[in-house]
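In practice, a research group might receive sequence data for several interacting partners and want a quick structural hypothesis before committing to experiments. The following worked case mirrors that situation: the sequences arrive first, and a predicted assembly follows.
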Amino acid sequence: VNDRSRGSRPGGRAAAVVAAVHKATLELLNERGFDALEIPEIAERSGVNKTSIYRRWSTKGELVLDVALSLTQVDVPIPNHGSLRDDLRSLLHSIADMLTTPFADGLLRAFICARDDSEVLVAQRSSFWNERFRISGALVERAIARGELPAGTNSNQLLELASSPLFFRHLVTKDPVGDEDIERLVRLAINAFTV
Amino acid sequence: VNDRSRGSRPGGRAAAVVAAVHKATLELLNERGFDALEIPEIAERSGVNKTSIYRRWSTKGELVLDVALSLTQVDVPIPNHGSLRDDLRSLLHSIADMLTTPFADGLLRAFICARDDSEVLVAQRSSFWNERFRISGALVERAIARGELPAGTNSNQLLELASSPLFFRHLVTKDPVGDEDIERLVRLAINAFTV
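A structural hypothesis for the assembly, expressed as tokens:
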């Protein structure tokens, strides 16, 4: 199936192609992870011509990062339980849960293992993380407003300290993360920034 | 060159083969990183038959992890400046510097991007990190002995909190790590464990 044959409005057609390819990529990423993901299969699943896919995204790394980036533009619910401890605990649990999904694991591999660290990829990665930190930062800003953290606390630094061990274990040591680990990270991160 | 033709004592020959393959792997890893590393090239460089290499290490991931593991059995100098702040600063600088080398980056990719997460690989990875944490733990034990940290402080937990953001930036966000970032991580980790 050639995507040129579908749709009538050029803008609508391009958007439909992007949506179909993104959807197929997400599904396949979820089903089999990044390593086994192949552009010909994405073409088949999406009904979009392989050549059209390569014209827009030169590698699967670029395509997966584009999917990731589009997902961050969706509203992400940020915990708002009225206390920093509860909000941070929820956030860390979400991150830990997310990391166990083939989808997020696939995204991370796309980020880390891409053989083509092109400018496009670097820019996409940077946008992705800036956006994630900006969105989650609301949790820290609310804690400052409630007087739970000193004014001027840097939310990126706090979120990085609290969440990095989750990524470290997931990617590097592969040690499991339990509830007690999350409880400890919440306590340590709050201690670190309130001394 | 077939390794069967070299050496006279079986034990000595096997050890010589392992040493030659390890050395070639390290050199090639340093020269071109994990992605571009290929077993046929390691065979050529080491003068060990490709078939002999595959007989012992079924994938390049396994081989590289075996090299990594053998390196951790070498004595690693642990900073001992007489203060936790200075020791932790030195350790984090060493980690940050190490992560920028093609060799360490290659090792990490071998850990993370290996397509074959075999039992062997999982066991090697676990040994590698247990050993790294055990060795670096001396720094925390000395701080406890000097009364800089509470008795019973868990050294793995402290080292994990302090160093994870370095790995997070190197692998995930690719944000650079400056002296001021290391200074902050030292301060935050100490705060976190001394409240």
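Before designing any experiment, note the following. Residues 119-145 of chain B form the longest helix (27 residues). Chain B touches chain A through 33 residues (CB under 8 Å).
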